Amino acid sequence: MLLLALCAMAAAGVLANAPMNMNGEYLIANPNPSAGGAYSTSFSARTAEYFDVYTASIETVYAEVFWTMMQPVPLPADIVSRFANKTIAVIGYEVDQVYRTPEGDQPVPIYWAYNHHYVAYILGKGASLERAAVSSASPEHLNAAMAMSHGSDSYWQMTSAGNGASPYPDVPDGQFFSEGNGGEFRKSYHGYPAGFAQLIYSPESFRIQPMQIDTHNRDYNGTGFKPGLLPKESAAPANASYSGLLECPCTTR
To answer: What does the alpha-carbon distance between residue 156 and residue 134 come to, in Å, rounded to a whole number?
Structure first.
């Protein structure tokens, strides 16, 4: 059983025990050459607090694609109480997929469960997620709706429910988190420069729609990666260092 874990960073006062990065150091591939110094990706350098949320467990078999909007997960009770009818400022987040064990969380190898992409939400008490028909999208939003649906006739859309909705025009009832990360999701930096944040009014719950592929070859008990049975449509070369299932090859099944 696998679980997705999200660690959200919220702006706060200076902490005596600042949070360390969950996934270690993050590297910036395209730093600003004219900057006076290196940009720090260490959340411990920020005046921030954090909270953790876990999804329900995910169970798959080899070659299965799990692409499902998961059920809401309540945010920690102290966060809900503290920010009831108030605004939280999210300045970054980290994500991992883990086994929960008596010795603590253990990361799931990327060659067991390949993350293709994910779409995550933090919802306030005035927000909800609803299925919307692509055909109902306005002309200026039609292309975005088609992209979000991935070929379906409907897609998930975040709306304000009205009851307890944010009284501030610049503070939304919920936020959307998706950087299009694939296999690099653990080591991609999801932080914002000083003075920037995603605001959420009266946050209450977390939802995520992961799209991941089970590439765990159960017939191999050694260390590292070894490909399992592949569809004949796979274009992966012999002895490839990745699973041909990542290409999402079309089959008759």
So the answer is: 10
